[in-house]
Amino acid sequence: MSSTESYDPAPLERLFLWRLAAGGGGDWLKELTKPKLGTGPRNRLIKSGLIELEQRKPSGQGRALKYLCLTDAGWAWCAEHMGTEVSNRSTAGGEILRMTLARLKRFLDHEGMTFGQLVAISDQKIESDASTTSPTDEAARVEAAYFQHSGGRPNVRVRLADLRSSMPDVARGDLDELLLSLERDGRLVLFPIDDPHDIGPADRDAVLRVPGGAERHVVYIGGARS
Q: In terms of Cα–Cα distance, which of 32, 30, 6, 11 is closest to 21?
């Protein structure tokens, strides 16, 4: 077992790792004052392989300064411990949360999503399994078509026009009912395109109308493919 796998960071050290992550993966040592991590704990994180200390010149000029950054193992630790307990004795948590939310907002703006949509998608339970689902299973085909157009990524917007184009042999009414059924089961979420200027002829032709008449133009499937 490697030192990275065997090392369990203390609560304040965990908070320090999240500070680096929220800052983009690294920062100058002189800027890392909240949380303030002593030399001993910092060296333990370095020895564990979760962070590394470099000598860098700001803007490539002047005197080299100490720069701390997450290693690949450090990023992996963050990905695997997003629900772990961190120190509540430091006031740094609020600033780290602010930095994290700012990055989340930029991501949501880029994806054209709202925070409410993200929460709805995160609450879904994706139960389909490509290894156990028959190729003729229409629900599995919807998922396969979605990931084809999303580039294999979950939680990104896929237009119904693109989804329909991948399933031309399925009658429109049957596909509409299937999508609505999957949404009721919490396996996907259908949304309208809010900006009218972003709705093209293909979107209008592929629109799905839910009971009550509201229009849906895009679909999200959340969670990792099993």
A: 32
Q: In the prediction, which pLDDT does 121 show?
A: 64
- At residue 211, the 3 state secondary structure works out as coil
Tokens describing residue 142? 């919807």
Task: Determine the Cα–Cα distance for residues 20 and 107; give it in Å rounded to an integer.
Answer: 18
CATH class in words for 3-105? mainly alpha
> What integer pLDDT is reported at residue 2 of this predicted model?
44
Say if residues 193 and 223 touch (Cβ distance below 8 Å). no
Better-scored residue on pLDDT, 136 or 208: 208
Going from the C-alpha of 82 to that of each of 15, 90, 113, the distances in angstroms are 11, 18, 22
Question: Domain residues of the chain, as ranges?
Answer: 3-105, 115-220
Q: Residue 47's CB: how many other CB atoms inside 10 A? A: 12
